[in-house]
Amino acid sequence: MFTCPLNDDACLKMLEVRHAPDIYNLIDSNREYLRRWLSFVDSTRHPVDTEVYVRATQNQYILDGSICAGIWHMGEMAGLIGMHSINWSNRATSIGYWLGEKFQGKGLVTLSVRAFLDYIFSELNRHRVELRAGTKNSKSRAVAERLGFTHEGTLRDAEWLYDRFIDLEVYAMLKSNWPG
Prior knowledge:
- The chain is α+β, with helices and mostly antiparallel strands.
- It has a domain of 124 residues: Aminopeptidase.
- The protein has five helices and eight strands, in the order ββαααβββαβαββ.
- The protein has an eight-stranded mixed β-sheet, with helices on both faces.
- It starts with a strand and ends in a 6-residue tail after the last strand.
């Protein structure tokens, strides 16, 4: 089971079904905030939707080793970080993350992404990790830039977000460039 301390107050824990109520409550109490950049918020209507999601992440882990972890701060669910499917032939994956509003500004995402990259490059021996963020999502883009990801370009109208398409910025980190 993947568990990773981030500092004295925070850690990552691979999702388990027992975490589903915590995830649902975090989403439910942050709907308006999360909806700005995340397309799944409106389809998360009931706690069972989150349980289905957690089971899907567990199945994905069995299929290809992709991990989805809760970001915990002072014993409270703060958000999620996860790998999207792994491209084994190219030794590549992509990651995504989100936090509840009250957990912003504590460095949790930067710590989480750093720990995830260490794991992906050292334990999974991946070569490339991609991160995509909405062009206007300055906080998410700042994480990629702070950690030294290379900006590779803009995908125009790449994601449908409720009532419009948004552009995505593509960032990548190569194992050879990761100082971890």
